[in-house]
Amino acid sequence: MSEKLKFPDNFLWGAATSAHQVEGGNRNDWSEWEKANAERLAKEAGSKWEKWQQDKFPEMFNSENYVSGRACDHYNRYENDLDIAKELGHNAHRFSVEWSRIEPEEGKFDEREVEHYRKVIQAIKNRGMEPFVTLWHWTIPLWLEKKGGCESRKFPEYFSKYSEYVAKKLGKEVKFWITLNEPTSVIASSYLTGVWPPQKKNILKAWRLYKIFARSHIRAYEIIHKNCPDAQVGFANILHSFEPYRRKWFLDELMVRIGKYLTNRRMLNLTEGYNDFLTVQYYFHNRFRFPKKVRTEHLPVTDMNWEIFPHGIYRIINKLKEHNLPIYITENGLADADDSKRQSFIFHHLWEMQRAIQDGADVRGYFYWSLLDNFEWDKGFWPRFGLVEVDYKTLERKIRPSALKYAKICRSNELEV
Ligand code: FCB
Question: Minimal CB count within 10 Å: which of 19, 46, 170, 313?
Fold first, then answer.
């Protein structure tokens, strides 16, 4: 006998995208970095990825894989893509507006680009979906890159001016605002491992960035509220699941504590009191055996070789409960080109989320990452995260079978177990 687990009334179901990864035709710090680094990235693929990944995705050896270029051409095809989202039963949609389009020169805002995003928001609403707007999903206008990008002490000021402009222009139409996307991912990948632009390995800078990002969020939070009194504002936080390899083993436990603090906790602490809702972006399970991260052998993996550990989302949500704020899962998903694991991935994560709700967590929405296959940053196009497959030659869209299963959950607002 199957059982039906109901989600709360008015639960928001959808998928997320970000401007640079889907739009095409952007000019920002990433687009320039991609062109300068594509050949190097293609050469390095052989040493970065496992043999099975290299065999499955030979495109990782082509330099074109690493240049976002026209991406999914979502900038021109958003109506069609939103039709698909609607057809898939979504009642919410998360996307980002591109700073480099809106403010191509310092202090000079482009009305036409704001109009474009106004149309996107209208298109979302006309299809009965709730828009979640992200102001900054990592890309930096070229003028700001020259001034030091997010390292600049003035970043919060630049960001707040841009946020103010967008909030004034689009505030009437948008209720849910996400200021920054995963600040800690930028700190880690741009300033600790140094694999993303501007590729600086600098612990001091990394440490300082937490405060810069927190200040940026807080200022934008206040500005959005001033301009749109009914707004709900938060930031998109990546939260990892952590586990010691040996329980009660001091050094393994210590690594877990440090990891939890730096990734899951610090940004929340620094922005305490300035979040109307909390978010969960969940992808990673980390197991530490001092001094290294080790694999959990029995766990299945995605095409990126990331471990699939659905229970992690339960633990994360359960911990967030203590803040007494509504929670939205603003990203969760996997790269799975042949769509063999996606259905079960979504099902198990939703089952764990449902358990957390039963245990008292106020979860109000879930956004699968991503609606479409798209440009996965320094990895390029080969990872396929989409509910919808994109043929990058013809730009044709094809709904994957797992998307239809997810659609059933979205429409019925329940999980059949
Ligand atoms: C998240 C990012 C998103 C996408 C997914 C796979 O960390 O926010 O843009 O790259 O990972």
Answer: 46
Q: How far is the CA of 141 from the centre of ligand 1 (A)?
A: 19
Atom of ligand 1 nearest to the CA of 181: 8
What lies within 8 Å, CB to CB, of 291 at 6+ separation is 251, 255
| Ligand 1 centre distance from Cα of residue 368 (Å) | 11
From 377, 379, 381, 387, give the residue whose CB has the most ligand 1 atoms within 8 Å, as the site to mutate. 377
Give per-residue pLDDT as tens, 286-336. Answer: 999 999 999 999 999 999 999 999 999 999 999 999 999 999 999 999 999
Q: What is the rounded average pLDDT of the residues 390-409?
A: 98
Instruction: Kindly state the tokens that stand for 19.
Output: 């401007």
**Tens of pLDDT, residues 91-130:** 999 999 999 999 999 999 999 999 999 999 999 999 999 9
Tally of CB atoms within 10 A around 248: 7
The C-alpha atoms of residue 388 and residue 353 are separated, in whole angstroms, by 23
State pLDDT tens for residues 235-291: 999 999 999 999 989 999 999 999 999 999 999 999 999 999 999 999 999 999 999
CB of 73 closer than 6 angstroms to any ligand 1 atom:
no
> In angstroms, rounded to a whole number, what is the distance separating the alpha carbons of residues 44 and 61?
8
- Considering the candidates 23, 98, 331, 352, report the single residue annotated as catalytic: 331
Catalytic, 105? Answer no
Q: Residue 287 burial (CB < 10 Å; 0-12/13-18/19+)?
A: buried
Q: Ligand 1 within 6 A of 334 CB?
A: no
Q: Which alpha helices (DSSP H) does 260-310 contain, by range? A: 266-270
Vertex 136: Cα angle to 127 and 232 (nearest 5): 60
C-beta of residue 131 within 8 angstroms of C-beta of residue 121: yes
Residue 79 known to be catalytic: no
Contacts of the segment 209-213: beta carbons below 8 A, 24+ positions apart: 209/150, 209/151, 209/183, 210/183, 210/184, 210/266, 210/267, 210/270, 211/270, 212/150, 212/151, 212/153, 212/155, 212/156, 213/150, 213/180, 213/183, 213/186, 213/187, 213/267
| Domains of the chain with CATH codes | 4-416 (3.20.20.80)
Is pTM beyond 0.85 here?
Answer: yes
Q: 189, 281, 284, 305: which to mutate for ligand 1, most atoms within 8 A of CB? A: 281
